[in-house]
């Protein structure tokens, strides 16, 4: 059964430049989280299909590495323009499979397409070095070459951007790839693959395998001795097991994992600006973002003003199916995710937290959860250590700056932190003291294709975007020039 609202989108595997069914013809259903209906059936790739995809990527690698950088850049530029031109169509697909409102899908498309443009420009900026050896006897030359065939595994929360952040630098660098999108949201990636094919990506350079037998199909690819790199965005738990698997081939590995972002509001902060920042840091993507503010750590002097203003704004957001007008809060991606968010709120309330707004699962179909603000949250509540991945803002208080930084760092994660203060010296102390890969100072969003995105600690390693992003797909070769 295919939903009539769903624009045309490929549903087959894309391997070696051909669209084909899974071996054996199996499919799986992609559902609309707003009502639980089936949108469409998609090919359920098998181990054989995974093998065919890595075979195709390996076969295409030598010729692809020789394609001039400008030509690779032009393919990305063309894809960027198509994605922007057809943004409305893609936004509908994304909202239907993932649940977020159309405005959020449009924002992701703007962000995700920008990686195609950014790396179209970076493709022609790869260079090496030349120097005289310290003893003057030889010359030292370094050059950059593509890492080789890559496996890219992406999550459901930003089904376009988490793909383009990997695919675009790999294309720019001259790597071939096998891409495995999340089972809950494969349609956006299949749509993008078609656009990249039409933009001139040669056969075998990009291969997309959708599957619900994920571990079974991915592990042989990871253990294939011809694979050179694994790049993964997803949960820390899965990331850990993939790092273990990648040890066998000593792969180049990038891990963009979970977060538990602190959002610090100091006594001297502009509270209205902090509330605006909090709305972005919490409500972007309905809170289903690795960068979502997970713990609001607010100075006691401004906690009351901050929480009441935040609750007023969060409580006013319209909830509903993402395709409806003015909706700001769509359903969460699946029932399990909605239940997890509800359980975290119930746990905090049982331990003494106060619900200022939200806190109740609404009646009716779809996996909705209302924007929720909790105050008086004890540190023993699970929300202080677990990634929420939903529209819930737990507020903790502090009175001493050093305590605030300690609380912020008291987590296994280290992806991003946000801090609001108008004091310059305090700002420097705070951003230097936070154990995260990224800090938003007086701003509630850090994601930017021109900046290096990534974490430390259990949030992973490697950087995506910025000048660093393409380096993840390049090896440095040193040539010693002797006989002078
Ligand atoms: P997930 O369960 O770890 O899944 C991510 C991807 O890994 C999916 O494609 C999934 O496939 C695949 N996968 C699952 N088990 C696997 C296995 N055994 N072998 C190989 N692949 C496997 O994470 P998620 O729930 O989709 O995404 C949410 C998580 O991603 C959150 O923790 C969030 O913080 C994190 N995230 C991090 C960043 C960042 O840049 N740091 C950005 C966005 C999201 P299936 O869908 O088929 O299970």
UniProtKB/TrEMBL annotation:
It comes from the Bacteria. InterPro entries: Ald_DH/histidinol_DH, Ald_DH_C, Ald_DH_CS_GLU, Ald_DH_N, Aldehyde_DH_dom, Aldehyde_DH_Superfamily. One of its GO terms (biological process) is gamma-aminobutyric acid catabolic process. This is Succinate-semialdehyde dehydrogenase. The lineage of its organism: Bacteria, Bacillati, Actinomycetota, Actinomycetes, Propionibacteriales. Belongs to the aldehyde dehydrogenase family. It comes from Aeromicrobium erythreum. Gene3D superfamilies: Aldehyde Dehydrogenase, Chain A, domain 1, Aldehyde Dehydrogenase, Chain A, domain 2. GO terms for molecular function: succinate-semialdehyde dehydrogenase (NAD+) activity. Residues 19-479 form the Aldehyde dehydrogenase domain. Keywords: Oxidoreductase. The active site is at 256. It holds the Pfam family Aldedh.
């Amino acid at each position: 059964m295919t939903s009539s609202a769903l624009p045309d989108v490929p549903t087959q595997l894309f391997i070696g430049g051909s669209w084909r069914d899974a071996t054996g013809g199996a499919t799986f259903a992609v559902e609309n989280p707003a009502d639980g209906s089936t949108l469409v059936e998609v090919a359920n790739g098998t181990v054989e299909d995974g093998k065919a995809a890595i075979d195709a990527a390996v076969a295409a690698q030598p010729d692809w590495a020789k394609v001039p950088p400008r030509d690779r850049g032009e393919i990305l530029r063309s894809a960027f323009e198509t994605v922007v031109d057809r943004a409305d169509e893609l936004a509908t697909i994304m909202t239907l499979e993932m649940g977020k409102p159309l405005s959020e899908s449009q924002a992701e498309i703007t962000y995700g397409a920008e990686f195609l443009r950014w790396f179209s420009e970076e493709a022609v900026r790869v260079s090496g070095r030349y120097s005289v050896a310290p003893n003057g006897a030889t010359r030292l030359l370094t050059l950059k070459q593509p890492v080789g065939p890559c496996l890219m595994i992406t999550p459901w929360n930003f089904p376009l951007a988490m793909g383009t952040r990997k695919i675009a630098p790999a294309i720019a660098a001259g790597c071939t790839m096998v891409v495995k999108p999340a089972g809950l949201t494969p349609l956006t990636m299949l749509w993008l693959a078609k656009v990249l094919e039409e933009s001139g990506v040669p056969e075998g350079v990009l291969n997309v395998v959708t599957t619900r037998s994920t571990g079974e199909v991915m592990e042989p690819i990871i253990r294939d001795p011809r694979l050179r790199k694994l790049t993964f965005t997803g949960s820390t738990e899965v990331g850990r097991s993939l790092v273990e698997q990648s040890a066998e081939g000593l792969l180049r590995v990038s891990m963009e994992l979970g977060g538990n972002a602190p959002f610090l509001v100091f006594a001297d902060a502009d509270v209205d600006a902090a509330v605006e920042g909090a709305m972005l840091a919490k409500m972007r993507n309905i809170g289903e973002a690795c960068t979502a503010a997970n713990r609001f750590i607010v100075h006691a002097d401004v906690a009351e003003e901050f929480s009441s203003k935040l609750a007023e704004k969060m409580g006013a957001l319209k909830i509903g199916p993402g395709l409806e007008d003015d909706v700001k809060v769509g359903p969460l991606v699946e029932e399990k995710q909605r239940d997890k968010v509800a359980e975290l709120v119930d746990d905090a309330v049982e331990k003494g937290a106060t619900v200022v707004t939200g806190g109740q699962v609404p009646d009716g179909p779809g996996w909705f959860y209302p924007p929720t603000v909790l105050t008086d949250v004890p540190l023993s509540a699970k929300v202080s250590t677990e990634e929420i991945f939903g529209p819930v803002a737990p507020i903790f208080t502090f009175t001493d700056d050093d305590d605030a930084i300690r609380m912020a760092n008291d987590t296994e994660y280290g992806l991003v932190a946000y801090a609001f203060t108008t004091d310059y010296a305090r700002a420097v102390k705070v951003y230097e003291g936070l154990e995260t890969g990224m800090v938003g100072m007086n701003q509630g969003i850090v994601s930017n294709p021109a900046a290096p995105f990534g974490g430390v600690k259990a949030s992973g390693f490697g950087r995506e975007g910025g000048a660093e992003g393409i380096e993840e797909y390049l090896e440095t070769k040193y040539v010693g020039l002797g006989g002078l």
